[in-house]
Structures are given as structure tokens and as C-alpha cells.
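queue> pop job 88
queue> type: inverse folding (structure -> sequence)
queue> payload:
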């Protein structure tokens, strides 16, 4: 019997958790599924591991020899999906027993277009909430002159709360957005909205997708009986850092924010955008630069040094992005640089 679901795994911001994440899926998933793995220029050790596993487990492996933005990676897989549902999951996520059963049950019972799990964050699995659904829509409000001003309304439910503290409040709930850490999607939605928008390189891609789903009458649910955990833990290795610095580069973030504003006719001078411009480079600085400075100074890390290092890092980040752009193959050559490895024998799990 053909599976209902195709799981699509793609890189989020690093490669070093590939093995743990993939093994988690095979260990904790009892629903039959097909799997497509998109590998965007992972280092040799990870590349070889994925090649071996694709033959052993029977999944399709799609690889490029250059780094991919998240929507670019997902779009490489979507045309190969021929099942009723598609499950997007990042390569730094651990799943728990029954996770997919619960998502599928919610989709079937509610006829939802998109279902997200309770997404936790950290090394302590299933303890701290990252996302339990939320609200995301474009609203119009009159300004001082009486003219309507468009703005983004966005609320994350229970963000950074301990699961134990709000357990009684976590119920299946219709909401307005999910995140690509993990989400179950009815494949037919792409017939209505097209592929994911590759104008979003590093941010707001999930909001854009969910706005489009809502605009065509689709529905989104959060199913908290399905629990997954996003594990951010960057390794200080050149291939890992190269991708991470590009993934959260100033250039990609600015381009994504400007594109989001243009696409949805939003003013970039409101608080929503100012907050994000003011935090430019935050992920790089929190994920690598500040821990690195603490390491170098044996925990001292004075403010003057941190400020100087951040200024220098912004300049280095521009060089990293410029270098990537020079090496990136032209669009007409992309088909020649994508490697698709089909398993010797299709295995359904």
C-alpha cells in the first residue's frame, strides 16, 4: 500500500546534527512514509553518510554542490512528491514517539491544510516551547491622517514557556501560522499557490507561506500531542560556520525583509521591521561570535571588545556573502549541478 506521506528533510543552518536527526525519524516513526533528503553542499563526511543511508533505507537523495536557502532546498523536493501529504522537517530536529501519527490524525479529523506539532527548543527534549501555533495576518489600521496603514500582526503562543507550566493549556487549536522546523502539508495546496517563494532567503518564508494558505481558504492547526524539538548547537568547524554565516547573513536577511515588504505592500518603517533591522546579525552573534569571544577572553568579554568585534564581523560577513554569490552557478546551469540519487530499491517505512 502506497504511503500517504513523504517526509522532506532539508538543511536549516548547520550540518553536524544530520545523523541524529535522521536516525530520530526512523526510530520514532511508525506511520508508513517515503523520504526525500535535500543536501545542500554538506561536508564530505556528511555527504558520504547520506549516500550510504539513502541506499540502506531506500530514500531519494538530492544534492547540490553549493549552499541552499531553505525555500530553494524545499522546492527541489516538492516536484518529486506524489503522496497526499508532504512533511517538511529541518535537519536539526529530533522527533518523539507518535509524532507523525498525531499530525496525520489531526489533518484527517480537521481537514486542515497545514498541521504543526508542539515545537520545543534546546538539548532537553520536549521541555521548553519554541512554537505552539500563533497568529499571523496583515491588518489595516487608520493612521493620524485617516489613511489605512498595512501592518503585520504576529503572535507566538507560549513561546519560551516550560511545557510543564502550561501543559493543561495545550490543546489542538486552529491557528494562523506554523514554522518550517516541522509541518505537515496537504500536497495539493501547491496547485493553488505554486511552489515556495524563493525570494525569501533567510526569514519570513513561513509567514509568507501561511498567509498564502489562509488567503486561498486553507486552514492551519497546531497539534500539541505531536512533539518535536529543534536543537541549536553550532559546531566550530569551517564548513558548518561557512553555511551558518551565509544562512543568517546581513545580505540575505535584508533582501528577505525588503522582499516581504514589497510583496505584501508593507511599510518598512514600522516597529515590526525596525525591530528586525536593529537585530541584524543577532543569530550569528549569539550563535558564534559572543561564545567565541567568551572563550578567547576566558569569560571576560568586555563590552568594548564585543562592540568592536561585531563591527568587524559585519564587514567579514559581507565578504562571505559576496564570495558565495561569485561561486553560485547561474540559474540556467542549476539543472546540471543538482545530483539526484535514487535508491537501488524503494523501501517504504
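queue> result:
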Amino acid at each position: 500500500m502506497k504511503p500517504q506521506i513523504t517526509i522532506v528533510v532539508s538543511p536549516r543552518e548547520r550540518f553536524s546534527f544530520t545523523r541524529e536527526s535522521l536516525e530520530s525519524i526512523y526510530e520514532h516513526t511508525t506511520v508508513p512514509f517515503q523520504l526525500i533528503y535535500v543536501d545542500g553542499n554538506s561536508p564530505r563526511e556528511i555527504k558520504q553518510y547520506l549516500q550510504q543511508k539513502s541506499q540502506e533505507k531506500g530514500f531519494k537523495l538530492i544534492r547540490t554542490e553549493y549552499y541552499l536557502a531553505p525555500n530553494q532546498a524545499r522546492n527541489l523536493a516538492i516536484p518529486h512528491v506524489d503522496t497526499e501529504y508532504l512533511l517538511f522537517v529541518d535537519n536539526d530536529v529530533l522527533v518523539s514517539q507518535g509524532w507523525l501519527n498525531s499530525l496525520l490524525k489531526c489533518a484527517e479529523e480537521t481537514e486542515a491544510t497545514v498541521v504543526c506539532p508542539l515545537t520545543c527548543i534546546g538539548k532537553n527534549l520536549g521541555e521548553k516551547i519554541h512554537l505552539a501555533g500563533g497568529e499571523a495576518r496583515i491588518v489595516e489600521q487608520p493612521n493620524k491622517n485617516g489613511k489605512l496603514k498595512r501592518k503585520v500582526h504576529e503572535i507566538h503562543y507560549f513561546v519560551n514557556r516550560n511545557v510543564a507550566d502550561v501543559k493543561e493549556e495545550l490543546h489542538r487549536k486552529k491557528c494562523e501560522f506554523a514554522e518550517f522546523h516541522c509541518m505537515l502539508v496537504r500536497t495539493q495546496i501547491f496547485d493553488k499557490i505554486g511552489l515556495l517563494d524563493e525570494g525569501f532567503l533567510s526569514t519570513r518564508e513561513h509567514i509568507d507561506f501561511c498567509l498564502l494558505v489562509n488567503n486561498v481558504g486553507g486552514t492551519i492547526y497546531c497539534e500539541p500531542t505531536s512533539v518535536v524539538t529543534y536543537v541549536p548547537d553550532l559546531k566550530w568547524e569551517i564548513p558548518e560556520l561557512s553555511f551558518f554565516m551565509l544562512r543568517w547573513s546581513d545580505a540575505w536577511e535584508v533582501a528577505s525583509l525588503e522582499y516581504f515588504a514589497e510583496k505584501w505592500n508593507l511599510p518598512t518603517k514600522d516597529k515590526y521591521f525596525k525591530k528586525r533591522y536593529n537585530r541584524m546579525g543577532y543569530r550569528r552573534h549569539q550563535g558564534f561570535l559572543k561564545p567565541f569571544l567568551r572563550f578567547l577572553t576566558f569569560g571576560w568579554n568586555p563590552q568594548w571588545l564585543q562592540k568592536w568585534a561585531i563591527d568587524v564581523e559585519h564587514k567579514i560577513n559581507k565578504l562571505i556573502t559576496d564570495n558565495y554569490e561569485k561561486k553560485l552557478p547561474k540559474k540556467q546551469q542549476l539543472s546540471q549541478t543538482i545530483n539526484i540519487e535514487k535508491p537501488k530499491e524503494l523501501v517504504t517505512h
